[in-house]
């Protein structure tokens, strides 16, 4: 009996060893990639299309499983920074180019340059050159594949403009024309524009009406701001002029959208992501609106900013496969389907040129807006921007609008504080 | 001999000691270590002495955050406790079902997730369409932008905070009220004491230890305020504090330095400055109490 038990134990042990062995062999073949995306890309139709991409990729790569996880903006950054510290990074992930430097600093981003160069020229040529340049702090360093992006637009409430006696058939071509329309809207007892001193990006948007890439962003070599004092003086004067015309809500506030939808706000300068809300309001409550380019100081110059979300790949044992997946989802066919679904501009210029994509009005205008816009926080992937930078810009813009500084003094103080902030 | 005698005792407290060391002691000691290092969370830290502390204390945002914090603490803690005391006295007057209904209603905000509470209050405070502005409109008052007007932002936060914390404090004070012997009130009534005199001369002195706990806990919580101003101002790691930093607080600045600028050494130093301030304040509270006892 004892011998029989020993035999049974021996057989069970061998079976268990065999099972462990076969599980090990399966694990060697099967790979699971962690794919982190923005939370709004992980729900509804966007998630369905992402899952379709995953299915198509997995069909070509048997044994590869991809887990898609949606995360909010801050959760993406915090998760990637913490993941880099603990060695538990997601394999492929989205984030904004503007936090790229932090991710490079903590080692969350693989330098994709050699993998990129190994891709066929046909693939590489699909991307918008400017968008790609944003991922390359040096000629032999590529830290991302540019993904969805935006050039900010000017959403116009046509009912409000008509009430103010403005001819809506001709969008304002210059800042002077635009400002004149704002004053007419105010005279009609309505709000002209959100308070653009409240958010860094909206300060940048107004700066772009006068300045451009050559006088914005960071001179990292000398750790100084590139903001031009004369241009900032002009811009701060604009905030002073707009003080009594604005709704005192930020461009991101729900209250701003409510004012626009309820025909109390004439202009909303923001990215294309508000369009689904306004499109729905047009259907349900008869909102009459359109979107045009943000006018600059002179005819032909446009204001507004541009920025891209990116796809990054983490260094590690799955980096090659993760890059393959990143390249697959940023390829023309996928980017065209993605753009059509979201009506959102992206960095694959070939996809944007597809007739059924470029026929979409929002994308068509977004392409023009992005080409004329200013990069919001370039150059990217060089150094992380200290927390004091953005708050200094918005604080002094708001303080000048409140009358605490003259525009000249405000510009001087802002530049001095920004340089001190960058020097820390 | 004594080790053998007390071994079972040591073994019984060992799980606590191990967990305490892992999750409290180690993070505190390593935080202190990193506060003297230039460290981004991943790369090897480099010793920088007290440079992180100097940098923080010299920064404009630190001064703003501390100024905001002091004003906030000075208003929200006493106001929150007064409201909680009032509610507890009110609920104490009810019995049975009504007492339960009021207690649960006032406690509801405590269990509400912070993001939900902030969403509700963003809607209440919204200019033009918000509940509060609609009410102001009925009285012919112009719309107020509570969350972007620097003269109202702090008070808007205090209102949210009192709304959330009052229920929690009320439950504790209510438990204290239930422990006051009714004979004291009966004797006072026989002596002709009014309701106000009963509250001043019996209720509040008898609630002393409970109020001490509520004040101390309220101070410690208020010093660490983070989620409500963060959510009310729609903050992110790269942009926080609301218009002109009117709702910038130390923990927000610490988070921004850690995850927005990946300066974990600086963030650790910030945490220690705040910890020292909290410990100093709590110690002052205890000393004040001991001094009052001696008197």
From TrEMBL, chain A:
<dbReference type="GO" id="GO:0042597">
    <property type="term" value="C:periplasmic space"/>
</dbReference>
<dbReference type="Pfam" id="PF01547">
    <property type="entry name" value="SBP_bac_1"/>
</dbReference>
<protein>
    <submittedName>
        <fullName>Carbohydrate ABC transporter substrate-binding protein, CUT1 family</fullName>
    </submittedName>
</protein>
<feature type="signal peptide">
    <location>
        <begin position="1"/>
        <end position="27"/>
    </location>
</feature>
<comment type="similarity">
    <text>Belongs to the bacterial solute-binding protein 1 family.</text>
</comment>
<keyword id="KW-0732">Signal</keyword>
<dbReference type="InterPro" id="IPR050490">
    <property type="entry name" value="Bact_solute-bd_prot1"/>
</dbReference>
<keyword id="KW-0574">Periplasm</keyword>
<dbReference type="InterPro" id="IPR006059">
    <property type="entry name" value="SBP"/>
</dbReference>
TrEMBL record, chain B:
<protein>
    <submittedName>
        <fullName>Carbohydrate ABC transporter membrane protein 1, CUT1 family</fullName>
    </submittedName>
</protein>
<keyword id="KW-0472">Membrane</keyword>
<keyword id="KW-1003">Cell membrane</keyword>
<keyword id="KW-0812">Transmembrane</keyword>
<dbReference type="InterPro" id="IPR035906">
    <property type="entry name" value="MetI-like_sf"/>
</dbReference>
<dbReference type="GO" id="GO:0055085">
    <property type="term" value="P:transmembrane transport"/>
</dbReference>
<dbReference type="InterPro" id="IPR051393">
    <property type="entry name" value="ABC_transporter_permease"/>
</dbReference>
<dbReference type="GO" id="GO:0005886">
    <property type="term" value="C:plasma membrane"/>
</dbReference>
<feature type="transmembrane region" description="Helical">
    <location>
        <begin position="104"/>
        <end position="124"/>
    </location>
</feature>
<feature type="transmembrane region" description="Helical">
    <location>
        <begin position="267"/>
        <end position="288"/>
    </location>
</feature>
<feature type="transmembrane region" description="Helical">
    <location>
        <begin position="69"/>
        <end position="92"/>
    </location>
</feature>
<feature type="transmembrane region" description="Helical">
    <location>
        <begin position="153"/>
        <end position="177"/>
    </location>
</feature>
<feature type="transmembrane region" description="Helical">
    <location>
        <begin position="12"/>
        <end position="36"/>
    </location>
</feature>
<dbReference type="InterPro" id="IPR000515">
    <property type="entry name" value="MetI-like"/>
</dbReference>
<feature type="transmembrane region" description="Helical">
    <location>
        <begin position="198"/>
        <end position="220"/>
    </location>
</feature>
<feature type="domain" description="ABC transmembrane type-1">
    <location>
        <begin position="66"/>
        <end position="285"/>
    </location>
</feature>
<keyword id="KW-1133">Transmembrane helix</keyword>
<keyword id="KW-0813">Transport</keyword>
<dbReference type="Pfam" id="PF00528">
    <property type="entry name" value="BPD_transp_1"/>
</dbReference>
<comment type="similarity">
    <text>Belongs to the binding-protein-dependent transport system permease family.</text>
</comment>
């Amino acid at each position: 009996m004892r011998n029989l038990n020993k035999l049974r134990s021996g057989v069970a042990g061998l079976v268990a060893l065999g099972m462990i062995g076969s599980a090990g062999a399966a694990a060697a073949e099967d790979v699971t990639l962690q794919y982190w995306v923005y939370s709004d890309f992980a729900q509804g139709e966007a998630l369905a299309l992402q899952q379709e991409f995953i299915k198509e990729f997995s069909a070509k790569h048997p044994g590869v499983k991809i887990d898609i996880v949606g995360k909010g903006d801050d959760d993406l950054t915090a998760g990637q920074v913490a993941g880099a510290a603990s060695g538990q990074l997601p394999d492929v992930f989205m984030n904004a180019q503007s936090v790229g430097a932090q991710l490079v600093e903590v080692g969350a981003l693989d330098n994709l340059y050699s993998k990129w160069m190994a891709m066929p020229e046909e693939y590489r040529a699909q991307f918008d050159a400017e968008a790609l340049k944003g991922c390359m702090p040096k000629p032999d360093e590529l830290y991302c594949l540019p993904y969805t992006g935006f050039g900010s637009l000017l959403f116009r409430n046509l009912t409000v403009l008509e009430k103010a006696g403005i001819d809506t058939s001709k969008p304002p071509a210059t800042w002077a024309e635009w400002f004149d329309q704002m004053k007419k809207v105010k005279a009609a007892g309505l709000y002209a524009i959100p308070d653009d001193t409240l958010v860094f990006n909206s300060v940048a948007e107004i700066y772009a009406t006068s300045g451009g890439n050559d006088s914005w962003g960071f001179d990292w070599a000398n750790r100084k701001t590139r903001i031009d004092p004369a241009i900032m003086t002009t811009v701060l004067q604009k905030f002073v002029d707009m003080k009594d015309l604005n709704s005192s809500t930020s461009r991101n506030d729900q209250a701003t959208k409510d004012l626009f939808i309820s025909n109390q706000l004439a202009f909303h300068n923001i990215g294309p992501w508000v369009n689904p809300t306004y499109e729905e309001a047009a259907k349900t409550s008869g909102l009459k609106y359109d979107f045009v380019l943000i006018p600059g100081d002179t005819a032909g110059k446009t204001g507004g900013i541009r920025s891209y979300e990116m796809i990054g790949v983490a260094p590690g044992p799955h980096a090659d496969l993760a890059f393959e997946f990143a390249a697959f989802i940023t390829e023309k066919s996928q980017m065209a389907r993605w753009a059509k679904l979201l009506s959102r501009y992206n960095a694959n210029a070939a996809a944007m040129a597809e007739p059924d994509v470029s026929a979409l009005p929002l994308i068509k205008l977004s392409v023009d807006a992005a080409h004329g816009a200013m990069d919001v926080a370039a150059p990217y992937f060089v150094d992380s921007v200290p927390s004091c930078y953005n708050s200094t810009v918005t604080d002094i813009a708001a303080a000048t609008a409140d009358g605490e500084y003259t525009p000249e003094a405000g510009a001087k103080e802002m530049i001095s504080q920004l340089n001190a902030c960058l020097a820390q | 001999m004594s080790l053998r005698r007390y071994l079972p005792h040591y073994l019984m407290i060992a799980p606590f000691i191990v967990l305490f060391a892992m999750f409290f002691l180690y993070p505190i000691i390593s935080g202190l270590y990193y506060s003297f290092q230039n460290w981004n969370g991943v790369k090897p830290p480099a010793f920088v002495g007290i440079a992180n502390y100097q940098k923080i204390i010299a920064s404009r945002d630190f001064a703003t955050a501390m100024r905001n914090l002091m004003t906030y603490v000075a208003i929200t803690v006493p106001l929150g406790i007064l409201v909680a005391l009032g509610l507890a006295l009110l609920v104490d007057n009810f019995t049975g079902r009504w007492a339960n209904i009021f207690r649960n209603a006032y406690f509801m905000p405590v269990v509400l997730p912070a993001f939900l509470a902030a969403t509700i209050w963003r809607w209440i405070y919204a200019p033009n369409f918000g509940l509060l502005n609609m009410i102001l409109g009925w009285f012919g008052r112009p719309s107020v932008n509570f969350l972007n007007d620097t003269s109202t932002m702090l008070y808007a936060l205090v209102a949210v905070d009192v709304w959330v914390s009052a229920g929690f404090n009320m439950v504790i004070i209510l438990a204290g009220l239930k422990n006051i012997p009714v004979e004291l009130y009966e004797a006072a009534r026989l002596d002709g004491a009014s309701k106000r005199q009963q509250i001043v001369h019996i209720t509040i002195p008898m609630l002393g230890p409970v109020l001490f706990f509520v004040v101390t806990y309220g101070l410690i919580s208020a010093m660490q305020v983070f989620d409500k101003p963060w959510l009310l101002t729609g903050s992110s790691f790269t942009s926080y504090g609301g218009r002109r930093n009117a709702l910038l607080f130390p923990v927000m600045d610490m988070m921004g330095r850690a995850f927005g600028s990946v300066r974990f050494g600086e963030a650790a130093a910030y945490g220690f400055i705040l910890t020292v301030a909290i410990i100093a304040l709590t110690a002052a509270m205890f000393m004040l109490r001991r001094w009052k006892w001696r008197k």
